[in-house]
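Case study.
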Amino acid sequence: MAKDRKPDDARPRGGASRSGSGGAGNRGKGGRTRPPTTVVANAQKRPWGLIAGALAVVVFAAAVITYAVVQVNEANADKVESADEIEGVQTYDYPGGDHVTTTVDYEQSPPVGGPHDPVWADCTGTVYDVDIRHENAVHGLEHGAVWITYNPDEVSDADIDTLAELVEGENGRMMSPYVGLDSPISIQSWGDQLKVDSADDVRLKQFADLMTFKSGDFPEPGATCERPDFLASPQLAGTPSTTAPGEGDAPVDGDMTEGGEQNG
Amino acid sequence: MGLMLIGGGLAVAVAVAVDRVPVTPAADSVDAGFALDMSVHHLQGVEMANLVAERSDDPEVESIAFDISATQTNQAGRMQGWLALWGIPLSGGDTMAWMGDAGHGHDMAGMDAASGALMPGMATEDELANLRGLTGTAFDVEFLRLMIRHHQGGFDMAQYAAEHAELQAVRDLAQSIEDSQSYEVSTMTDMLTARGGTPLPAP
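After joint prediction, the assembly is written out as follows.
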């Protein structure tokens, strides 16, 4: 029924090329094997041409498959298929978060999930040069983004360029300095985090390639990273939400226990 | 040359045979019914959300509407893509039949499950016309009331598919719709309360 349709579709194509080229092969072989086969009985017992041809086909097929496998393996040398395969990744379990316009005291720093601002940080391969508001960044993670952060006091301009190469042109990624970060570099997605010391650490690319919009690993599949208003005017860490409705005008400074981050 | 073609063809055939696990849900499957009905359900959500930009001045409402519009447009596209691959037409199905008794149990008063009937939580034409005529806070309140009920209706459909669909990809999407519509309902209910509105009865 429906199940048979796909293999059937494929078959005529394979069949056509097989019979077409098979005809060509026989003709070539015929030229070589036919003259000596005036002794008919002999040829029927040992069709060497056919055996050699079949063998050549099998050998060639094996070579093609081996070549393909080797190529794919080389291309995938650094590729990983789950976060467990990347040494040092910390995993946390966060359900989809509530929207809040207050400041949030997150468990992890940088945060990897939890309540967040109604506005998500633009994460369309966006390289920020400011410490963006963490509550907005978390909403970007909820949309499937990978967020690279670095301690501006501990990485060089060259390092920043190296990190930016992982982000620019890659929808679903963003990057920003993070004042007070406890390691030179941290990369995170919703519920996953890896802290590394060097911008050249191969695990950064592994993490980014694996986790960007990773199916089943963030709450809102299909959500967009586009946020033109945030991109035009990024909100800064330690400032109140711009989404707060009238009644929420007084930001809850008392809730904020992260020392030294105000007005960062 | 001929040998190369044969060998190449054989290599491809072997690779394809090893790789291929054909699963094509039938038109009356949970997978197909969910994809069909949820994509229609989603697109009404998108239609309502797209009214917000011109009618609301509230950044919080505008933000959640943008989020809903973009996300549900994308998800509806995924589901329509599946249906195209499965050879199932995008219209004319037996609405909500795939949920069996569970679907009928949630029918809104006076509606049958025949083609064209509104699915749980969907707004009527009158409700949509009324919404289009509003602006400002009155619009925000009515939008949130309709969208909360819309999400609640979608929640039951997603929950059923997350449990009963055959394909992992379908179950995964259904599960994330179930989860995200659940917390978006609580977010929107808070927003509605903050704007002095009261929710509609759940579907």
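Observations recorded in class. The CA atoms of residues 4 and 10 of chain A lie 10 Å apart. Confidence is low (pLDDT under 50) at residues 1-31, 246-264 of chain A. We will return to this complex in the next lecture.
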